[in-house]
Amino acid sequence: MDLCVIGTGYVGLVTGACFAEMGNEVWCVDVDAAKIEGLKAGKLPIYEPGLDEIVERNHQEGRLRFTTDLGEAMAECDVLFIAVGTPPLEDGSADLQHVLTVARDIGRRLTRYSVVVDKSTVPVGTAERVRRAIQAELDARGVSIPFDVVSNPEFLKEGAAVEDFMRPDRIIVGTDSEAARERMAELYAPFNRSHQRVIYMGVRDAEMTKYAANAMLATKISFMNEIAALCERYGVDVENVRLGIGSDQRIGYHFIYPGCGYGGSCFPKDVKALIAMAQAAGVEPEVLTAVEERNAKQKRVLEEKIVARFGEDLTGRTFGVWGLAFKPGTDDMREAPSIPLIEGLIQRGARVRAYDPVAMDNARRVFPAQWFDEGRLVFTRHQYDALDGADAMVLVTEWKPFRHPDFAAIKRLLKTPVIFDGRNQYDPLQLERLGIAYVGIGRANALAGEESRAVAL
Ligand SMILES: NC(=O)c1ccc[n+]([C@@H]2O[C@H](COP(=O)([O-])OP(=O)(O)OC[C@H]3O[C@@H](n4cnc5c(N)ncnc54)[C@H](O)[C@@H]3O)[C@@H](O)[C@H]2O)c1
Ligand SMILES: O=c1ccn([C@@H]2O[C@H](COP(=O)(O)OP(=O)(O)O[C@H]3O[C@H](CO)[C@@H](O)[C@H](O)[C@H]3O)[C@@H](O)[C@H]2O)c(=O)[nH]1
């Protein structure tokens, strides 16, 4: 099939590349000329494991093409994916300006029956707004061309995007049109070889399904982070509790890892957008608000633990931070817990030395240039350089090379052997034996103070 994917970010590029890999002819369109030029020259705008290989192969073989000219792409395609960003507005609701701009652009160029597929995460009712925006342009042109708008939300995770796209748990297709359903069935047929993965439903049902999925996952994480806080007060190791409850199939092991808060471009914004949708509909979003508040607190937890140990004023202290990206496997810094942590430490007078395997270029744009100029924030070439002379190590993102490090080297490099483990990667007892103080999230010794013992007794 001939497809056009509009928006060449994390979702658009993966969608385009994976459909091309399945033998389709794909045009990827973006307004960002530098991104498109880079892609034409074989330079990927994002880090995503395995993506470079399929982009390169399909580009070379002519199935995957890049352009800033939507008209050029639409001349050959009649399935048009919208995969542009839907960032939060001030009030938390989703900003649909890019989606609606694309809809108008499509309406100005439509020449034959086409299926417009909304892959961006959008509030219930957006497909209808997209339909109206396209129709308004057709009316302005004085032409009558049939088209359908389908909701096909994306569920890929960054860091595993290609794998998730190629082997999805499910593919949600929201449409009331038989013609559109047939096109989507044909397009997704290669992904259904082992079993049927497509779930058909109404357009509005599909739009809500995406938000409900992300909100449920965020709820599991915030719930677990609250349990972790309780565990600390009662001298309980939350890691044992996690294993204990995860073994119940009704709960499961996924998304119950406590940590220093969820980040990324999806959970924070989608929970906020769902809260805004609830408020607009007169439904009190009690659970969602709590999920959001717990996460905001959780992003301050590492700083609080550092302050509990070193005091409010961190002048003269240096902290070695491992991991900047919001999760391993990506260079995405959107809503990363490392941001408030580093800002908090530097504002308290500390210096920070940080290392991330792939996100340092993006992270450099997040923090004030002055901090780098003054040496208050240094990005190092190697993970161990970040710890050289630091008062403590802080693990924020659990990249694989951080999971089983050389603790003897860590102890040698640190001024005081203390590890703040924001992802509960390490064994507190092992570190204790090595003479390294350990502070995790919800671990039995996390407070290591009288307060925790007092409550436990
Ligand atoms: N990132 C994820 O893991 C993920 C997963 C599932 C769903 N989503 C959803 O998918 C959507 C896209 O997310 P993303 O992370 O890929 O965003 P992104 O910011 O990485 O990419 C969006 C791209 O759209 C381009 N764009 C903006 N306006 C355009 C226009 N008028 N015409 C053509 N291109 C335009 C931008 O230049 C950018 O390259 C969002 O709604 C998001 O919530 C994201
Ligand atoms: O048990 C867990 C699992 C995740 N996280 C954190 O949650 C955030 C999000 O992680 P993850 O869901 O793996 O990455 P995303 O790429 O943001 O993917 C989510 O958001 C996408 C965009 O909507 C959806 O498509 C995916 O299905 C959904 O998992 C990260 O900060 C993780 O560190 C935890 O703290 N504990």
TrEMBL record:
Q: Name one GO molecular function term.
A: UDP-glucose 6-dehydrogenase activity
Q: Which Gene3D superfamilies match?
A: Cytochrome c1, transmembrane anchor, C-terminal, NAD(P)-binding Rossmann-like Domain
One short Pfam name that applies is UDPG_MGDP_dh
Give the keywords, sorted: NAD, Oxidoreductase
Cross-referenced SUPFAM superfamilies: 6-phosphogluconate dehydrogenase C-terminal domain-like, NAD(P)-binding Rossmann-fold domains, UDP-glucose/GDP-mannose dehydrogenase C-terminal domain
Enzyme active site: C266
Q: Which SMART domains match?
A: UDPG_MGDP_dh_C
- From the UniProt record, list the reaction(s) this protein catalyses: UDP-alpha-D-glucose + 2 NAD(+) + H2O = UDP-alpha-D-glucuronate + 2 NADH + 3 H(+)
Which of this chain's residues are annotated to bind NAD(+)?
D30, K35, T86, T121, E158, K269, R334
Which biological processes are named by the entry's GO terms? polysaccharide biosynthetic process; UDP-glucuronate biosynthetic process
* EC number(s) on file: 1.1.1.22
Pathway-wise, it operates in: Nucleotide-sugar biosynthesis; UDP-alpha-D-glucuronate biosynthesis; UDP-alpha-D-glucuronate from UDP-alpha-D-glucose: step 1/1
Stated name of the protein: UDP-glucose 6-dehydrogenase
Q: Which organism's genome codes for this protein?
A: Tepidiphilus thermophilus
